[in-house]
Amino acid sequence: MFEPRVALASLSGEADAAWARAAADHVGAAFLGGIALDEPARAAAREMVADRDREEFLPADPIAFVERELAALADAPVRPAFNVRSATVDPVREAARACARHGAILEINAHCRQAELCAAGCGETLLADVDRLARYVEAAVDAGAAVSVKVRAEVDGVDLPATAARIERAGADAVHVDAMDSEAVVADVARATDLFVIANNGVRGRETAREYLRYGADAVSVGRASDRPAVLERVRAATAEWFGRREAPA
Length: 250
Prior knowledge:
- 41% of the residues lie in helices and 18% in strands.
- It is built from 10 helices and 8 strands.
- It has helices at 17-23, 39-51, 62-71, 90-101, 115-120, 130-142, 160-169, 185-192, 206-214, 229-242, and strands spanning 6-8, 29-36, 79-85, 105-110, 146-152, 174-178, 196-200, 219-222.
- It has an 8-stranded parallel β-barrel with strand order 1-2-3-4-5-6-7-8, surrounded by 9 helices.
């Protein structure tokens, strides 16, 4: 899906094309966003900006923003992706069409746990309604995009391996797992599916990357440390070593 096997994980209000380009020499993919697509998701994002010390992308036209940011990475040596939030399926399909036009991955956000987003029907609420999540995946696949789903471990009542298997049947290509404090769940997901498994949470260097790779992850992602080239290079070197690749220094 991408090489090297290191991705930048989306960061609310920060993960734009400039952010991705700054780290492009160190990673194989960059997940921009998240971006709220429909009005319920946008209302939740506005509420979080107003009530919390938080940044959000709130352009007037979310799909135009997706197109513009992806176009800005057309000549960058990194595969772009866009993490999207929506309470309804049609905007996901539209965003997927935009991603397909740019050879980008569309990532469905079934991850965010903020109360405002959950009340709107976004984020991790999709993990509790796997049939609705599967409809989002099917819509994005039908629009021609490669599809990832960002998920979270430690959600009460959610069988993450079974959820991964369901989204695989719906046509997803990848699952992006925020392991929280349950790193071994990556192994359960990897055994349950043939999806490309991207492991996230606390990846900072050789040991943390190798832990996830031992559990069967196909790649790892870096979030809050994504603006630290030394961290990205350590992680890149660890993945190259793990997969037996020789890489020239970035």
